[in-house]
Design a protein that fits this description.
There is one protein chain. With about 100 residues, this protein is mostly helical. The protein has one domain (about 5-100): de novo design (two linked rop proteins) (Up-down Bundle). It contains three helices and no strands. It starts with 6 loop residues before the first helix and ends with a helix.
Amino acid sequence: GELPQNFQARHIATQLLRSGTAAAPNYAEARAAESRADFIHKLGVALKELNETAVWLRIIRGSFHMETNLLTKLVAENTELCRILVASIQTARRNKRKDNGH
């Protein structure tokens, strides 16, 4: 299935492309963070982009009644990436508290 060729579909596709490709560079910035706080912040930005991607994928699924293998795989992969980043952020916050003696 492909998206229809209309303004709404092009807008959604553009937003999906933007959010879907923004997570990787933000993750790269997190890996080069100058502090644990900076690492947590940049992972959080990457997570926000992945969450936005999830919204656009749900909009595509619902608005255009699409249920393709590719869409299902994209939703699953995005969900898994979100879970990984949430776990990483939680671990980094826990380690930050340990570093601060709490």
